[in-house]
Amino acid sequence: MEEDQNHHHHQWADPLLLTDVSLQQRISHQYNSQNQIASPPRSHFVAMADSVFHHDPDDGTSWQNDPISNELVDGKSMLGFSLTSPDLVICGGSPEIPKSSYGESPEFSERIQCSFEVSLENGIKGSDDNNGSHKNKTPSVRFSSFNKEFSPESSLELLPPSTMPEQDPVPVVSINEDYREPMLLEAKRFSQLEECESTKDSGERGVKGDYERLKMSYECQKKELTEAKRTLEELKRENQLKNKEYQETWKSLQELQNELMRKSMHVGSLAFAIEGQVKEKSRWFSSLRDLTRRLKIMKMEHINLFEEALAYKKCAAEISEASSTIQSKINHQVQLYEHLKIKFIEGTKERKELYNKVLELKGNIRVFCRCRPLNSEETAAGSVMAVDFESVRDGELTVISNGAPKKTFKFDAVFGPQADQVDVFQDTAPFANSVLDGYNVCIFAYGQTGTGKTFTMEGTKEARGVNFRTLEELFRIIKEREKLYRYDISVSVLEVYNEQIRDLLAVGSQPGAVSKRLEVRQAGEGMHHVPGLVEAHVNNISEVWEVLQTGSNVRAVGSTNANEHSSRSHCMHCVMVRRELVEWGMHKEQAMASGSSRKNSKLTHLLQDSLGGDSKTLMFVQISPNENDLSETLCSLNFASRVRGIELGAAKKQLDTSELLRYKQMVEKTKQELKSRDVQSKRMEDTIHGLDLKLKDKDLKIKSLQDKVKELETQLLVERKLARQHVDTKIAEQHLKQQQQEELKYCTIEATTWKSFAIKVISPIEKENNPEMTEQPRLPNRTGRASLCTAVRRIPLTSAPRRNSLIPLPSAPTSAPLTPALLPLPPCEVDEKEEIDECLTEQVIHCNSPKVIKSESKKLSSALRRSLQKKMQRKSPMQQHFRRGGVNVGMQQLRVSIGSRGRMAHRVLLGAGRRGGTKEIHQKQNQKEKERGWNIGTAGRII
Ligand SMILES: Nc1ncnc2c1ncn2[C@@H]1O[C@H](COP(=O)(O)OP(=O)(O)OP(=O)(O)O)[C@@H](O)[C@H]1O
Q1: Among 117, 500, 548, 723, which is 20 to 30 Å from 244 by CA?
Q2: Which pLDDT value is given to residue 284?
């Protein structure tokens, strides 16, 4: 812009210099030829950069010339200049300035190229006489601006006035440089004329001479005046013409100036717009850089994630391999476990058998003898002890009568008055184990009234009896075996009184109340039971206690001589145990009965199942220590001895103890093995569980990573697409703007009328999305001038060229080379489109370099070709033939013909009329079908 302005300045500065020099010459010439000027312009003219002033030093006034009329405002001078703008200087010219003087100006201006100040104060004839002192001064011209050829000290001076007093001073311009020749020549010519006239005057001194001289002078002046008048007229006319021309030129210049101003403004706005565009472009480039950087980062992340995913896949494969190994080990362990389980079951069975053998060795009916302590009354009465407890050892008991041992009894265990409930139960507990092993167990107490049967079996809250403790032991063992078995325990409490069975758990079973009559029945397998008896399910020992208390509270009680609170009845607690093997789901039902009993047929009937077969029986024979009860005691002990003696076979007792020991060792060994196997199996299960959890965690991680990779890929694709669209749009806009700028640059400034027309702007993106838009006819390119003020902007239809660094949309689907033979085929089906779409997607994702774009384009073309070939192959030759021949063939329309082997097959009946088309076409088609191995015309061919 600055250069342009300088250019314009130089271009328009020349007329200023031209005018100034011409003015200078004209002034010199005028004062030499006509010394008498009516109103001598004793003044100096100053030509400055922006205006020309006429200055009168006498009154100090200055006038500026009228730029339009080129006349001074007060009419004192005809000379003037106009400077309408800093760039444009228009010369008005004076009527006295001949045209020829303008011809010299360019050279002079070229040489000088400066503005200057002219001072003519002392060199003009007719100046004010009162200011004679000014005549001695030297007119001078001062330069105000110079190029490199002039130094700032350069000056242009007028010559000093003539020494002849009678003659008018002749202002002579002298220039102290070589550029003053034109002015010096003019001054020389004037001085020669002056010399000639002075010589003539010196020869004639007389009146005649004066007359003649005056006459000649008059004639001469007259002629000169006439000539001057004529010249003046011509100059006036010329001045008018010049004025007219000047006005036209002035108007033109004003228009041009206006146009220039508009253009300057337009250029300024364009510069502003360009600056904005440059900023926008830089912003977009920075955005693009940022996007590229992010893309790189995302690529790196993608690569890292991909590698991580691969590592995880590898890890998953390893885990899978480990899992399969573990699974095989588990299977092996499971097999081992099954084997051990079988062994365990066998061992358990063996243990049970051995245990039973041990019990059998000990006796299926075991008899414990328990003697209560003397009560307070007996002690107070000074009762004597009839039993010698000091000599009690190994189950032997000696009855004393009158201070001497009367009879010794031997039982499985003997508990004296000091033995508490815990001691008694220690030997009773193994029967609880037998109950859970599936044996019928019967525990009952037998004895005289008041000897402690109820105390032993039920006990008190502070000293729980055998019933409670046995059930407690049952629950303890159930807890131990809960992994192997599930047990269900129910309790029934009944009373046998006066040969009647009473359910103590039934509602309304209060003493004396009328209750439902219960009877003992025999089941199908010979088992005896009481139909309608309440069975209370118990899950823990507290429920057991409640049930026992309920039954105990409703027992029929009375008083005897020996027992103030005698129960007066037989009470029986039946505990039903149902066992279920956890894995096998087997069900077994067996029972335990306990009670306190007297000899009674009903009771015997009830205990029939528990007293025979495989059942185990424990009898507590309760005795009184009082010597007064000796006969009753001996009776009970004798009965118990018989019971024990009857059940214990002598042969069994004689079994070898070493064999029993060996069996015991085997049982212990099996138990240890089972325990260790259990621990091992548990460890393996825990390990497998932990590995399963790890595997699941890894699977979840892999899945989340895969999802993340997919998400990143999708995001990358979207961002690439957006960036590509954005950059394409911006490049297209940039391209359009550049083209407009180029058009503006090269357009000429001329007034031109345009017939405006609308051009639809098609962006590259629209063109991609609507390919048919590209097929619109292109308007012809305009040639010639361009108007700056057209109503519609001219926008080229050609889209901006793509950059290779960006991702171009593939144009293969429309530009793929299709051979004429392929063109008539119908468009691709959905699967082929999908294939192409896949190619496109793949291309969009991966093509980021020209090589890749080229290869992807090739891939796309080949995919298209493949899809079209598939399309051709998919249509069978027969179908193609029918399609080309114009025959509509469906399976229902085909006739079935019999082949050579008599098989039914579809046969095509093609009449010449149905095939359609000409014979030539038919022959060609036949030829093609033959080439493909099809012979439609063969009759009986199996299709
Ligand atoms: N081993 C013992 N230690 C302390 N006290 C006992 C013992 N045995 C019995 N007794 C007490 O003897 C009394 C009578 O006992 P219990 O009622 O159990 O006899 P019983 O045989 O059930 O009588 P019945 O046949 O008449 O019902 C009770 O007060 C009981 O507390």
Answers
A1: 117
A2: 93
- Closest residue by CA, ligand 1 atom 28: 452
Token pair in block for residue 164: 């002849």
Does residue 764 belong to any structural domain of this protein? no
Report residue 265's pLDDT band, with 50, 70 and 90 as the boundaries: very high
- pLDDT per residue as tens digits for the range 623-665: 999 888 889 999 999 988 888 775 433 333 334 455 567 777 8
Q: In this predicted model, what pLDDT tens digit does every residue of 444-493 receive, in sequence order? A: 898 888 899 989 998 888 899 998 899 899 899 888 888 878 888 888 88
> What end-to-end distance do the CA atoms of the chain give, in Å?
86
Q: ipTM strictly over 0.85? A: yes
Instruction: Name residue 375's amino acid.
Output: N
pLDDT in tens, 482-521: 887 888 888 888 888 777 888 888 876 665 555 667 777 7
Task: Residue 74: count other Cβ atoms within 10 Å of its Cβ.
Answer: 10
Q: Are 505 and 547 in contact (CB under 8 A)?
A: yes
Q: For the domain that residue 421 is a member of, what is the CATH number?
A: 3.40.850.10
Helix, strand, or coil here: 139?
coil
CA of 453 to the centre of ligand 1 (A): 6
Whether residue 572 contacts residue 503, with contact meaning beta carbons closer than 8 Å, is answered with: no
447 is an annotated ligand-binding site residue: yes
Confidence check: pLDDT of 230 > 50: yes
Sign, CA dihedral 778-781-787-788, equals positive
d(Cα 813, Cα 819) in Å, to the nearest integer?
14
Model confidence over 817-831: pLDDT tens digits? 433 333 333 443 444
Domain end (from 192, 215, 238):
192
Q: Domain residues for 446?
A: 364-647
User: Of 192, 207, 229, which residue constitutes the final position of a domain?
Assistant: 192
On whether 203 is known to bind a ligand per the annotation, the reply is no
Residue 904 makes CB contacts below 8 A (sequence gap 6+) with: 896, 898
Nearest atom (ligand 1) to Cα of 598: 25
Distance CA 644, CA 647 (A): 5
Decide if 545 is inside a domain: yes
Closest CA to 693 of 314, 313, 326, 305: 326
Q: Helix H segments across 585-656?
A: 601-606, 630-647, 650-653
Residue 371 pLDDT: 92
The DSSP result for 468-510, as a single string, is HHHHHHHHHHHHHTTTTEEEEEEEEEEEEETTEEEETTSTT--
Torsion on CA atoms 914, 916, 919, 922, rounded to nearest 10: -90
**Chain segment 691-706, per-residue pLDDT in tens:** 888 888 888 988 888 8
The residue whose CA is least distant from atom 3 of ligand 1 is 372
CB 121 within 8 A of CB 142: no
Query: Could you read off the pLDDT of 318-354 as tens digits, one per residue?
Result: 888 888 888 888 888 888 888 888 888 888 777 777 7
Whether residue 40 is contained in a domain is answered as yes
Residue 942, in any domain of the structure: no
* Residue 452 is labelled as binding a ligand: yes
Q: Tell whether residue 753 is among the known ligand binding residues.
A: no
Whether the model clears a pTM of 0.80, i.e. scores above it, the answer is no
Per the document, the length of the chain is: 943
SS3 for 131? helix
d(CA 169, CA 188): 14
Residues touching ligand 1 (Cβ under 6 Å) are 372-373, 447, 449-455, 560, 563, 566-567, 622
Residue 308 CB: number of other CB atoms within 10 A? 17
CA of 275 to the centre of ligand 1 (A): 120
Q: What is the pLDDT of residues 102-125, one digit of tens each?
A: 444 444 444 444 444 444 444 444
Q: How far apart are CA 387 and CA 358, in angstroms?
A: 31
Show Cβ contacts of residue 143 under 8 Å, excluding neighbours closer than 6 positions. 114, 115, 116, 117, 150, 152, 154, 155, 156
What distance in angstroms lies between residue 625's CA and the mean position of ligand 1's atoms?
12
For 208, what's the count of Cα atoms within 13 Å in the CB-facing half-sphere?
A: 1
